[in-house]
């Protein structure tokens, strides 16, 4: 029976924020929205969904307005992480602007991490904090039947121009009581078509992956300073009977051949990990997970590999003991990291891991220790990154107390960028970032291209390829290779499991694109005599892009890098180019330069900002993909 608003059927609209900007570009289905929509459907509510990623040619406001013109909705719900702040804000505010009587509801990590700041910025009618499954039906029932909602735990609401935050609800102790996520609200076949060996770093083993996400536990036993747990600090595990009942349903309904285990940490119980491996083996599924380096040994990895585990994401972060201690990486040591990586490599399990620099305990010496180890072990293809104080983390609160984050709202709107939280001076930190960029570019492990032909099994442009792995020297075949973006590609070897790099300029569809971009950038430079570049993307991506198009950036007259992020302003980019703020003063300074917009999700917003500040359209060139 459908529930109603005072006798009229209540319609609830979920909106998936825009994660990608190009047709057929891959994204991960949001489990949070899937769980909540499933619960509301089971409670008798009419549920619909707009997936913004299926409408990349239109902006969010247009999509929302068009939907509400054609269909009705009483409640609109969306959410996600802080990285998608702008999309989420436009979704709720455009719905409210077009249909003032609609109830707007915000959920997910974005609001749970800094509730007062986010609610003030986005201005939803309501917000659900933390785990929403326990509150959602009670809340929607209150709206549907005109009941009081001011005491519903985990709910925030507006009253007299202020937000009121109700008491917290206890964590869901028995995860087996939750229904299995119903993915039928999405166009699941369209989603599978976006999955190719190159569309995500964990989909490489099969030409035609059919992978869905699953969680077997919630939260994490650790409290690392850089992590935020949007569904609470209490670690809970589902029974394996429940997990395998869901897996069987996935196989039956969606014919999956891969499984992405999204647990923050699957290996809190080694006994459970071993039992999982034993039970999943008969299903002949390939699967991935995330583990502590200290939780695996040779025997366990051998069992996991035999059961279909082909990739493990390890929590690494640093090779320095003081930094690991500062991060609260309990039980993680250099020796355990080395052992886990070596054993994974020996058993042919692909390694995913990151070293992140800039922790409060980081020094020139500690960063050198990690970098030197990294340079000696490039076969592991561990990514180099910067630590960022994400809202909700201990680092975020520390950065606020230290005055490094002066304005919470501005920091979030800037994309929660990495900051120098370390003991290093600004010059030392900037020098470290430049070295990381150069090292990353120099340490690429490129495969040998043996052959590339069209893959006639698809109705879109894709290729069959034969590559020679630089690690094991085996010739490996791949099909359904789709290349869309002008950036270095990465594949896992189907023979040895180690990852290698692939230059996209060898593919016919990108070769012409890269040549055209090189010529147009050079023409713009020659026409204006100088160029300004925005935004200040990671230096390694900057270096590699110009290498891909065959243009020596050091020979260009680059007046400045321009960014909106105050934490970057005043830095020397690559040790030589000033980073200036994207404002009227800067645009007036570069009025006689061409403006190059680098590859970014926020391209359209940045172009509009430049126009609003006085730049003319013919002055701007944006990198397309």
3D structure, described in words:
Helix content is 34%, strand content 20%. The protein contains 20 helices and 29 strands. A 7-stranded mixed β-sheet has the order 4-3-5-6-7-8-9, with helices on both faces. A 6-stranded mixed β-sheet has the order 26-27-25-24-28-29, with helices on both faces. The two termini are 47 Å apart. The model has no long low-confidence stretch (mean pLDDT 93).
How is this fold's topology laid out?
Layout lengths: L3 E2 L2 E2 L1 E6 L14 H12 L3 E6 L8 H11 L4 E5 L5 H14 L4 E5 L1 H5 L1 H8 L3 E3 L4 H13 L9 E5 L2 E4 L22 H6 L17 E4 L2 E2 L17 E2 L2 H15 L3 E4 L8 H11 L5 E6 L6 H9 L2 E6 L6 H6 L7 H13 L3 E3 L1 E4 L6 H13 L6 E4 L7 H8 L6 H6 L12 H17 L5 E7 L8 E6 L6 E7 L7 E4 L6 E4 L5 H21 L2 E4 L4 H11 L8 E6 L8 E2 L3 E5 L2 H6 L4 E4 L5 H10 L7 E3 L3
Parallel strand pairs: 3-4, 3-5, 5-6, 6-7, 10-13, 13-14, 14-15, 15-16, 17-18, 24-25, 24-28, 25-27, 28-29
Antiparallel strand pairs: 1-2, 7-8, 8-9, 11-12, 19-20, 20-21, 22-23, 26-27
Helix pairs in contact: 1-6, 2-3, 13-16, 16-18
